[in-house]
Amino acid sequence: MTSSTAAHPEASPLASRTQQPLLALLIRLHLYVGLLVGPFIFIAALSGLVYALTPQLEERLYAEQLFANSTGTPQPLARQIEVAQAHVGEAATLSAVRPAPESGTTTRVMFTSPELGESESRAVFIDPVTAEIRGDLLVYGTSGVLPLRTWLDQFHRSLLLGEPGRLYSELAASWLWVAALGGFALWIIRRRRASATVRSKGLRHWHATLGLCLLIGLLFFSATGLTWSRWAGGNIGVARAALGMSTPSVSTALNGEKAAPPGEHDHHTGMAMPAAQTRDPQSFDAVLNAARNAGIDAGKLEIVPATEPNRAWSVTEIDRSWPTQVDAVAIDPRSLMVTDRIDFASFPIAAKLTRWGIDAHMGSLFGLANQLLLAVTALGLATLVAFGYLMWWRRRAPVRRVGVLQALRALPPRALGTTVLVTLVFGICLPVLGVSLLLFLAIEALLDGLARSRPERLRQPG
Q1: Mean pLDDT of all residues in the chain?
Q2: What is the mean pLDDT of residues 252-267?
Q3: DSSP state at residue 306
Q4: CATH for the 277-346 domain, from 3.30.1760, 3.10.450, 1.25.40, 3.30.420
C-alpha cells in the first residue's frame, strides 16, 4: 500500500470502482479498433512504406526526364518554353515553369488542358543547355509529383476509389491515435499489476513492446494524416483560421485590389494587360531575375504566370528539405516590382509545424534519414496489426467478456460524465471517428441483446 492510499483509505474503493470498468472499456475498445479498423491501418502502413521509398525509384525510372548530360550555359527560359509550347500545341495552356535547380537537371514546363483531370498537369522536361525535349509526363498536384508517386499517393489516400475512398484513410488516421494511446494505457495498467518475475514474454509482450517503441511515430502519423483528411482536416483548417494560424499565401492582386479566389473577379480597374501577354514566354526571365533580386534564392522554385489580366505573377520556393525554403513573392510583370511577399520565417508557429509535419510525413524533410525512419515505422505498424490479429485468433473463443456498454454503466457518475464529454468533443472534431464509434456501440448493443436473449431461448421447452 502506498503512502497516498494510507493517508486516504477511502480513495481505494473509489479508485478500484473506476479502474476495473475503465480497464474493461480500454480492452474492449482496443479490440474493436484492432478488428474493425486494423485492416485499414494495415493497408495505409504498407502503402506508406512503399511511398517512402519512391524518390530513389523515381530517379531511376524517370532518369531520362529528370536529368540532362549536356554542360554549358543554359538557354533563356523563353527559348525553353517556346520549344515546350511547340511540342504540346495550342490546345494546352502554360501554367507554370520550374527552372532546372542545378547543373545536370532539366527544366519542367507545365501545361493545363480541358481533357486533364482535377489537379493534373502535363509536364514537358527540357534540357536547359540544348533546349532538347527530354520527356513528357502527367504530373499531379501543386507539388507536381510524377506518375509513380501519384499512383502510390492516391492508393495510400483513397485506394484509387476517389473521394469516397478517402474515408478509408481518414478512418485509419482517426483511430490510430486512439489505438496507440489505449494500448499505452493498457501497458501501464498491466505493468503495475504484474510482478517483474511473472511478466509474460509471449506474443502480447512483443506486441506491447513494439507498440511502446513506435508510440511517438504512430501519434505523428495520425496527427499529420488528419491535417489533410476531408472532414477532420476541414475542422482543423477552420480552427487554425479562427486562431489566426492559417498558412499565409502571396496575393497577386494589383492596383490596390484585395486578393480573392480565382473566379471571383468580375471586373478589374486600372490599365489591364491583354490576356495574351499574361503568359508571354519573354517575361519569364525578367520575372525570375526580379525574384532573385528580391531574395528568392532557393535552387528549386516555381514561376506561375498571371491567370488573368491585371494580376501579378508569383515566384515560390519549393524546397521542402531542411532548412525549409518556401518564401514567395508576387511580381508585376510590367514594372517588375514586388507587390507582395511571404517569408517562412514569419509564418505562425502552427503553420510552420503543419509544413514540417506534412513534409516529414512525406519523407522529404530530412532526406534519406527521414525516408528510412518512415519505412521502419510503417513496417512496425503493419507488424503490430498482424500481431494483434494473431493474438485474437489464438484466443478468439472468449472474445466477448465485458462489453463497452457494460463497462460504461459500471463507471462512477463523474467518470462516466467525463468519458462521455471527452468522447463527444472528439466525435465532433473528428466526424469519421464519431460516426464509426456510433457504429461500434450499435454492434455492442446488438451483441448485448443477443447475449441476454440466449438463456431465455434455452429455457423454453422444445
Answers
A1: 86
A2: 52
A3: -
A4: 3.10.450
